[in-house]
Design goal:
This protein is of the alpha+beta class and about 900 residues long. The chain folds into 3 domains: about 500 residues, Multidrug efflux transporter AcrB transmembrane domain (Multidrug efflux transporter AcrB transmembrane fold, Up-down Bundle), CATH 1.20.1640; about 160 residues, no CATH class; about 130 residues, no CATH class. Helices cover about 60% and strands about 10% of the residues. The chain has 30 helices and 18 strands. The strands form 6 sheets. Strands 1, 4, 7, 10 and 11 form a 5-stranded antiparallel β-sheet that branches. Strands 12, 13, 14, 15 and 16 form a 5-stranded antiparallel β-sheet that branches. β8 and β9 form a beta hairpin. The chain is elongated and about 115 Å long. The two termini are about 25 Å apart.
């Protein structure tokens, strides 16, 4: 016996012994497992959630977060007295309101300005919380006035200047008005028209009252109606609120999913004819129950550890249902293959059948569960909190689901077989009789259909349309030359599309696109993208003390500023440079550092807008840090924003002094540059781990290579077709890619393991038998997973929709490779090593089969029940297919 055969037999014997053990004590094992899952579920009482988009979808310990920490130590912003939008260290989105005329004409007209002013007054005065807290009580202020960015463009003086053709664009009276006028048109630098006006109401941050005012603003402004204007709004809380509400609403689909899965599992496990005793549909429902309990137990166990629930975890139940039913169909396939009679005609007992099922299927479900568990284990090391928490929650669920199959579903298999052996009805558990007996007793046709049955006489009775016909089609396609050419042609087309899509796939997650298209925030984001340039301010921080009075130091700073202006990503029209402004003022004095600081202090009294750009020491006699502000040119994608951040950081390396580039939104830009290397690293590790796992369970170099190459090709296809389905490589789709690693290995491992386990004189014969063994379970597993997620096509959540798209892709591609591509290659170049038995056992098997074929019905012992002739005829039908294996002294004859 070869090395592989000895290894395979050793692992199979372990599961066979476990099958014997469960056959002896099914009820104690089942009750203990169910109680354990329920006790674990109690941990749900400790469930806590995390909904911050910054925390969830930006990498931990990124360079931007470190730069923010340094900026916090150097500068503080007084939101109550000296607020300045450019000087913010924290991400602080204002309450944002856009106005557009209903006719979409030029909004720079008095009637529209009057309407905007009326709405502005409503926001300031009528929206209140805690009885009398209005915007004036929660606004950020500058020199005593609430800061509303853009209010200058709705002033009467602005409209008068516009009528005189005196409004310059994009900068007017030292203000960049392009930030507040959407789709503006100018001629010779003079503003002529615009379609939108934008006002931004700045609030105090980290203030509970201002947060309440924001929510009240959302409630009132989403219902506000204007006769002249369309309005779009956004607040700092909008994305978090909308994301949570979308996902929470979509959780309702889970109940429908479980209903679909229960129905399908019941139908897929029903035999090819009505037999109320041999019926195994209860096992399909038991498999779903084991999966549901796994979800409950995993949620409870993980919550009890203090790990926070994140929105992404909402898709976990859909995923686990598919994984759980995959295991169920594999185990049921093994049970269906279990011999019902021995060569001498006597019945095999339940212990032998369960032992056989575990010996043939235990390795398969272990491979799939282990690969899925390790895939999510790798994902748990991600720098993205959303991915890490999702991977931990789902990895624990996969592990508990696997254990539940062994401790809940397998005992249910034993109990069901005991019921069938005692001729009890599948639903009532009452003793019943065969159809012939009920007919002889004069029972009605309805009674004969609903109540009659008998123990199964052959494995053919368990064949189901969902397994039989897809398998036969694949066998036909792979088994002839035309079919092979067709598969090869489809595969080449698949590769071409996959490569093109992968090359053109965009990176980065547009967090604002996470909302549904019927959300008020979707409208705001749409207008923002259509009518306003996508520009980013950036500040360059000198974070160490510098003697600014020295000419050489100022020259160094001026030279560095010149390099920044020269960069093509920096706008030439907008810059805030306190040093240049001070140098041009009459207060400038560079005789000594003390004189420089004294003159600067006096200068800032006239330019308080620049006071936030200089940090003095405690004695106000030395400058410990300063910053300079620039604006980017328009950008059109997240990739460009990530590139802008990296370019600004590279510029700092040319400075003689310590300097770093920072903008609060660099925190989000980090994902645009980190998601690709993080994904490639994670996928690379995952592929390596899957390689090791496959080697352990299938120690055949050729098949390990086949599984690995198939995994890589499937991943290539998934990444490529993301492009065609308008998905980007992001922290959310990265989760889906990690998930697909396990599924991709599952499909290919099943068919390769089956190929090594069956016997056959030619490669084509082995492939035919491998498809007979695993084709049905693979098809059922994929179909059940697709049915489980199909309801998500109606989802409002980007997270659920992207999950649906990715799962559908991986299921279809997994089926394509497992049932078409891999069988094609195995039929051409597959190894001819026999995995399940050695040569001696093969020869013994052939002798046993030949004996069965030549025996007459007088030679075989007949049962006294009168069913012996049917038994013999069944054996003869079974042996005619020629697909046989042996297990000790038991012959398994597969259709």
């Amino acid at each position: 016996m070869g090395c592989y055969a000895r290894y395979e037999e050793g692992v199979s014997n372990f599961f066979a012994k476990y099958g014997v053990f469960v056959s002896k004590y099914p009820w104690p094992i089942l009750i203990f497992a169910i109680l354990t899952n329920i006790l674990l579920g109690i941990g749900l009482m400790q469930l806590k959630s995390e909904g911050s988009t910054e925390v969830l979808y930006t990498p931990m310990n990124s360079q931007a977060s470190k730069d923010r920490g340094k900026a916090r130590q150097l500068f503080t912003l007084d939101y109550k007295e000296n607020f300045d939008a450019l000087s913010q260290i924290e991400i602080s989105q204002p309450v944002d309101v856009m106005f557009r005329t209903k006719s979409e004409e030029n909004i720079l007209q008095k009637k529209y300005f009057d309407e905007i002013k009326a709405i502005d007054a409503f926001i300031r005065q009528s929206i209140s919380v805690q009885s009398n807290v209005t915007f004036d009580d929660v606004c950020a202020r500058f020199q005593g006035f609430c800061v509303v960015s853009g209010e200058s463009v709705i002033a009467d003086s602005f409209l008068d200047a516009l009528n005189r053709d005196e409004v310059t664009f994009p900068v007017y009276v030292m203000n960049d008005i392009s930030l507040h006028l959407g789709d503006a048109r100018s001629r010779n630098g003079t503003l002529k028209s615009t379609r939108l006006v934008r006002l931004q109401y700045n609030l105090l941050i980290k203030n509970d009252t201002s947060a309440l005012w924001e929510r009240e603003f959302i409630d009132q402004m989403t219902d506000y109606q204007s006769s002249l204007l369309d309005i779009a709004i956004s607040t700092s809380q909008s994305l978090d609120i909308e994301l949570d509400s979308n996902v929470s609403g979509d959780i309702l689909w889970i109940s429908l999913t479980f209903t679909i899965m229960l129905t399908y599992a019941s139908l897929a496990t029903t035999g090819n004819r009505i037999n109320c005793i041999a019926d195994r549909s209860n096992l399909g429902r038991a498999g779903v129950l084991a999966t549901v309990l796994a979800i409950l137990g995993s949620f409870g166990l993980t919550s009890a550890t203090g790990l926070k629930y994140v929105a992404l975890v909402g898709v976990m139940p859909f995923l686990i249902v598919g994984i759980g039913l995959d295991d169920v169909f594999i185990l049921l396939s093994g049970l269906a293959d279990a011999p019902l009679v021995r060569p001498d005609g006597s019945e095999t007992d339940i212990k032998d059948r369960i032992s056989f099922a575990m010996a043939t299927s235990g390795v398969s479900i272990s491979i799939t569960s282990l690969t899925d568990f390790l895939a999510f284990g790798i994902g748990s090391s991600s720098s993205f909190v959303a991915i890490r928490n999702f991977s931990i929650y789902t990895g624990v669920a996969v592990l508990i689901c696997y254990l539940n199959q062994l401790t809940i579903f397998v005992p249910c298999m034993v109990i069901n077989e005991r019921r069938a052996a005692s001729s009890r009805h599948a639903f009532t558990c009452m003793k019943t009789k065969s159809r012939e007996e009920l007919k002889n007793e004069g029972k009605s046709s309805v009674s004969q259909v609903c109540c009659a049955g008998s123990p199964a006489k052959s494995s053919a009775e368990f064949d189901n349309f969902s397994q039989k016909y897809p398998t036969k089609f694949c066998q036909f396609l792979v088994g002839n030359v035309v079919g092979k050419i067709f598969i090869a042609a489809v595969f080449v087309v698949y590769l071409c599309f996959s490569i093109y899509g992968s090359i053109n796939l965009q990176e980065g997650l547009e967090l604002k696109n996470l909302v549904s298209d019927n959300s008020y925030l979707y409208k705001f984001n749409l207008w923002d993208n259509l009518y306003f340039d996508r520009r980013t301010p950036v500040a360059f921080f000198y974070d160490t003390p510098i003697e600014y009075h020295l000419q050489e130091n100022r020259n160094e700073i001026i030279s560095f500023m010149r390099k920044i202006r020269a960069d093509p990503l920096i706008s030439s029209t907008i810059e805030r440079n306190w040093l240049q402004a001070f140098s041009d003022s009459p207060q400038f004095n560079s005789s000594t550092e003390a004189a420089f600081v004294e003159g600067l202090t006096h200068f800032l009294r006239f330019r308080p807008d620049l006071a936030n750009d200089i940090a003095f020491d405690a004695s106000k006699t030395a400058i410990i840090a300063s910053r300079f502000h620039f604006m980017s040119t328009p950008m059109f994608s997240t990739t460009e924003e990530g590139h802008f951040m990296q370019t600004m950081r590279k510029l700092t390396s040319s400075s003689k002094f310590s300097v770093f580039a920072y903008n609060p939104y660099f925190i989000f830009y980090e994902q645009y540059v980190e998601v690709f290397p993080a994904t490639m690293q994670t996928l690379g590790i995952a592929v390596g781990v899957m390689l090791v796992v496959t080697t352990i369970f299938m120690p055949n170099i050729f098949l390990v290579a086949m599984v690995t190459v198939t995994l890589i090709i499937i991943l290539l296809g998934i990444v490529g077709f993301m492009y065609y389905w308008d998905l980007t490589l992001s922290s959310i789709t990265m989760v889906d890619l990690i998930m697909t690693v396990g599924f991709s290995v599952d499909f290919s491992a099943h068919i390769c393991h089956a190929y090594m386990s069956v016997t056959g004189k030619t490669r084509g014969e082995k492939v035919h038998h491998a498809l007979s063994r695993s084709g049905g379970p693979i098809f059922n597993s994929a179909l059940s997973s697709i049915l489980g997620i199909i309801v998500l096509i109606f989802s409002k959540s980007y997270i659920f929709l992207s999950f649906f798209k990715m799962m559908l892709i991986v299921m279809l591609f997994g089926l394509f490779h497992a049932l078409w591509v891999l069988p094609l290659f195995l039929s051409l170049i597959g190894p001819m090593v026999t995995g399940e038995v050695g040569h001696e056992r093969d020869r013994q098997l052939e002798n046993d089969v030949e004996k069965l074929k030549t025996n007459t019905k007088e030679d075989l012992p007949l049962k006294e029940t009168g069913e012996g002739i049917n038994d013999v005829n069944d054996k003869r039908k079974m042996t005619s297919s020629g697909d046989t294996t042996s297990e000790g002294n038991v012959i398994t004859i597969k259709l």
